[in-house]
Structure to design on (587 residues):
């Protein structure tokens, strides 16, 4: 299949440019990785909308909180692993406890960061962020959805976290594809099983669905870009209508999308569930594709879990 | 208020502090008593531009309590300013109270930010100052830090940020009482030459006796007049000031006086003026 590939982070940068062009009352902050997060585009074109905070993630989030208190909407941007980990207490106690209008852009999410290795591969951020009261957590599936998600959180009051990857990944949505915070997007209709995916795993899930169609297995695919608040209606409908669920994410199994779906199913509509995720381990250096294969974060892993979960029906 | 009236208000606030912490059965009297002149000078000395009748007034200056555990001194000052009924002080730390153990801005009229996890306030103050600058607003931001709190690395990140952006609408105050929870700073982790440190980081440093309320008010005015660099008032203070048995004793960092101790404390606070 011939698909266009663009890094998700480009969508973040494009959305911020759009907001600056419109003269929105925003401020873009970065912690010395502006070229990586694409906020360098703001620095170069709209310097009055940009502050480089230096290598100081905690100070960046605190400063963002102060900007929000003054009426400005800040976008604090850096590597996902440092944003969610290094500045966790600042996000918890200053941003979320005060319910401040701070936007957090986590770049280089997931294991596909590649050769930088485990220190830079963010695999725990969804778990950390979704545990926080008042927080909205979004993991878009491609650059276009990242752009829409960034524009959407700019309009939404309160703390919002969006995570996106480094690598060029297939673009599966276009300008007209709907995006609504908290509303799962149906990518493939199906009746035998549902794959609920986020991030770059949405494309892999679509590949799995298309391949299994030829084997006579009908696989529904949901792009669950918003992990908090979770679209419980879509999860429950999937459980009722297809009877089995597989989740897929570039994140630890503990606390991520799979956990969120498991909580929803256990409380509202128990159904067999399997998870495609990282199994309680750190990553390592390697090419993105090699890592996605080694850690079983691809189409084949999804197909394996689909077959396993159908056997449990 | 004139100096005599400010001194009277300090006695009122100190009485409030020990009384409310006694009634709550827990809380932090030591650092509240050391910061009393700092807070009274700021609010009753005509420094901070606020309107207790309109706590959310956009044109107000902001106060960020970075050392959130000294909520009692702030609550007393806000109550005495008229943000809420003084009787509310009796509810400190109780279920459903507008006065949480550590400040929660959504609950307490007049609070500009929540705090309690140390080291974060100056970053927030800088963000406010940058936001005011961006929006062409003249507001000033005051931020009270504890000395023990300066052991948190984030404080120094924020110190650099304010200096780099020349945030002269920021005024930090360090309550240098030399005592933290586990002992003295000199025993645990010494701050060294604090004045030199702040100067070296590019701040305008004003050093005062933090229990001389006239010096406190004058320091705020001097900081306000100084342009081009952020200002820090390093206030030499005594932990537990005004209650002899609490002074310089780390055991009174976070302890409530019993009825007998409260009576003794109130006698000392309201007795002969030294």
């Amino acid at each position: 299949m011939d698909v266009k590939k663009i890094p998700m982070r480009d969508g973040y940068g494009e959305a911020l440019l759009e907001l600056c062009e419109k003269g929105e009352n925003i401020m873009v902050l970065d912690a010395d990785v502006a070229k990586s997060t694409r906020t360098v585009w703001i620095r170069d074109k709209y310097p009055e909308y940009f502050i480089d905070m230096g290598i100081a993630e905690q100070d960046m989030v605190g400063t963002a909180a102060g900007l929000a208190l003054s009426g400005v909407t800040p976008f604090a941007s850096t590597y996902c692993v440092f944003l969610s980990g290094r500045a966790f207490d600042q996000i918890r106690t200053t941003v979320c406890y005060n319910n401040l209008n701070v936007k957090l852009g986590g770049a280089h999410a997931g294991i596909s960061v590649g050769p930088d290795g485990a220190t830079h591969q963010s695999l725990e951020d969804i778990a950390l962020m979704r545990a926080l009261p008042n927080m909205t957590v979004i993991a878009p599936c491609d650059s276009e959805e990242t752009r829409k998600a960034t524009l959407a959180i700019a309009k939404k009051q309160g703390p919002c976290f969006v995570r996106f990857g480094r690598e060029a990944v297939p673009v599966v949505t276009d300008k007209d594809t709907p995006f609504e915070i908290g509303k799962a997007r149906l990518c493939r209709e199906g009746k035998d099983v549902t794959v609920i995916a986020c991030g770059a795993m949405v494309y892999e899930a679509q590949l799995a669905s298309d391949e299994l169609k030829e084997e006579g297995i009908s696989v529904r695919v949901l792009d669950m870009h918003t992990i908090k608040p979770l679209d419980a209606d879509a999860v429950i409908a999937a459980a009722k209508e297809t009877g089995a669920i597989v989740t897929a994410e570039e994140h630890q199994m503990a606390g991520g999308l799979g956990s969120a779906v498991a909580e929803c199913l256990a409380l509202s509509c128990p159904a067999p569930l399997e998870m495609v995720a990282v199994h309680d381990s750190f990553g390592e250096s390697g090419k993105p594709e090699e890592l996605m294969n080694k850690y079983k974060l691809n189409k084949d892993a999804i197909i394996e879990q689909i077959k396993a979960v159908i056997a449990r029906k | 208020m004139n100096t005599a009236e400010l001194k009277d208000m300090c006695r009122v606030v100190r009485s409030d502090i020990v009384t409310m912490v006694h009634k709550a059965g827990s809380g932090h009297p030591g650092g509240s008593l050391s910061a009393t002149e700092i807070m009274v000078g700021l609010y009753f000395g005509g420094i901070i531009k606020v309107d207790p009748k309109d706590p959310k007034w956009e044109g107000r200056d902001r106060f960020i309590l970075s050392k959130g555990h000294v909520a009692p001194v702030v609550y007393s000052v806000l109550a005495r300013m008229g943000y809420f009924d003084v009787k509310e002080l009796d509810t400190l730390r109780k279920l459903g109270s507008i006065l949480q153990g550590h400040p929660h801005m959504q609950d307490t009229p007049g609070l500009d930010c929540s705090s309690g996890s140390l080291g974060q306030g100056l970053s927030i103050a800088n963000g406010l100052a940058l936001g005011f600058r961006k929006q062409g607003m003249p507001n000033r931001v005051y931020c009270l830090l504890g000395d023990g709190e300066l052991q948190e690395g984030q404080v120094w990140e924020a110190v650099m940020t304010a200096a780099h952006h020349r945030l002269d609408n920021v005024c930090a105050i360090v309550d240098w009482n030399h005592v933290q929870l586990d002992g003295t700073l000199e025993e645990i982790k010494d701050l060294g030459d604090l004045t030199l440190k702040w100067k070296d980081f590019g701040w305008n440093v004003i050093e005062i006796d933090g229990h001389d309320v006239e010096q406190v008010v004058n320091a705020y005015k001097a900081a306000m007049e100084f342009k081009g660099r952020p200002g820090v008032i390093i206030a030499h203070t005594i932990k537990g000031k005004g209650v002899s048995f609490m002074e310089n004793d780390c055991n009174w960092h976070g302890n409530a006086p019993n009825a007998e101790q409260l009576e003794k404390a109130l006698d000392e606070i309201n007795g002969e003026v030294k």
Summary: Chain A touches chain B at residues 25, 27, 48, 51, 53-54, 56, 58-59, 61-72, 74, 89-90, 93-94, 97-99 (CB under 8 Å).
